Amino acid sequence: MEKLPKLTIPVIVGVILLIILVAKSSVTISSGHAGVLYQTFGNGVVTDEPPLGEGFHIIAPWNKVFVYEVRQQELSEKMQVLSSNGLEIKLDASAWYQPVPKDVAKLHQEKGEDYLQRVIQPAIRSAARSVVGRYTPEQLYSTKRDAIQEEIFEETKKILDKQYVQLNEILVRDVTLPPTIKDAIERKLRQEQESLEYEFRLEKATKEAQKVRIEAQGKADANAILSASLTDKILQDKGIDATLELAKSQNAKVVVVGSGDSGLPLILGNN
After folding, report:
1. Does residue 61 contact residue 95 with C-beta atoms inside 8 Å?
2. Is the model more confident about 246 or about 176?
3. With respect to CATH, is domain 73-177 assigned 3.20.20.70?
4. Whole-model pTM over 0.70
């Protein structure tokens, strides 16, 4: 076997070192991410320049890049908090959040890569305890879910806006009460519903009775007005008109003039 030329081994070693150097000097940032540059022989985390954006970058081999996802992310939290009267409430909520891209270097420098556990979770839990503690279990169960969701969002956002994290939404998926409290609330709600239904039927019946009384009074008033306006002369005139009309019919009849109690004609034998 022939010996390798004297320059072959140094060339091979040089190529290997060059590959390692290139590998150490390059970084690729994926979509939806940003890179925080750390200068080993400089001032550490670079905060006075924008973070490294998506794509391929060349850096000094002795420096480091910490990659952060800056897209919207979701955190699911199951918490146990106390209501205004001291009862334990289980809250199931989600938070939509993302690091502020331009401040990701400060986030890395001050909070670190585990900022989720250091900042976001404590903020949400603190806000949830504060907000839920203002309401009774009945309010939480029936009418205040949207309100507590909005209030938890506002209180959490105030905290995170100072921590280089953008909070987009808080969603309260479920509020679980102790079974005995839940059953008592449901019974009360059913009773209230039945009471409202009874009041509705009673009001409807009262209005129907009032309508009948008004109609009856109207008829009585009409009859009274009609009776007051009818005189003997008017009745006689109406009787004569009716007799004349009947006399025109083809049916056989006998008309006795002036034989009625009021002097009106009598018609006999009408077939």
Report:
1. no
2. 176
3. no
4. no
